[in-house]
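I am hoping you can look over what I have pasted underneath with an eye to the fold:
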Amino acid sequence: MKKNKKNSNRLDPWIEGYLSYLAEVSRKSRTTVRDIRCTLKRVSGAMASLRPGVSLWKLDLLDYLRWFEVEREAGMSVHTLAKYASHIRGLLNYAWRSGRADRNVLDGFSLQDAKRPVEPRSLTLEEARRLVEACPKRTAPQRRDRVIILLLYGCGLRTDELCRLTVGDVIQERQEVFVRRGKGDRQRYIPIPDGVYTEVLAYLLARGGKRGPLFRTHAKGRRIASRHVCDVVRHAASRAKLGDDVTPKTLRHSFATHLMDRGVDLAVIASLMGHRSPQETGVYLHVLPGKPREAVDRLGKNHRKGGPAR
């Protein structure tokens, strides 16, 4: 049974070679390669019905446009479709460089979302305070869960990034946390706020040891998974009476929103969050009503006073 399941996950031998190239030569993370595999498996399955017997690198742009439209009508977001297009574009570019295709039909192709970006859910400062206060620290499990909440909100970590942290990733000499493998395999250092750092140090002292996962399950001592983090946040939000729509991503959004609300530069926030560019971070402008106007008004005041300082 296991053997059949493994074989069912395999794609065209040449595509498997491409995935091996990504892992062994391009040094893409297992998560990234797995994500690309899922995309190529999805499009291969669809094209087996739409264009049976035709390899992905032999399809034309119209074939892909039809598939994108089918996915869009099925409710797939433009963001996800853009990710699919990026994954397929990489395969087609590899095929073109290998001489299997005359050209990359998706070269230069992009998907644009005409709709206004959806405002991400974020907590107010008062709600964030209530969430932290709803996390006691009397027992070892409670201390672990409290530090999880504090790092998600205080450092803007993604769930996977938090799960991958090791004891050594807390850089005590600089009061920072080191994200070794963020989204897109990007690394970054994030300063730990003073109040959070104090509790992290207390947690490390109680935890003991200089190696291993920073957060472990209490039953078997294994590295925590995303589902554990989601449970921690959900239970804390329930105790704080914040509703059932608070997730780890909500805390990350709150981190960015509260920094922006304090006037922190967008490029700095983008760097702290591990975004590729400030454009990704721009969505948080939509949760700060009046901020663009406030900035323009401030600029106007400078001009009325004789212009900005030189």
Summary: The two ends are 73 Å apart (CA to CA). The longest helix spans residues 30-50. The first strand starts at residue 170 and ends at 171.
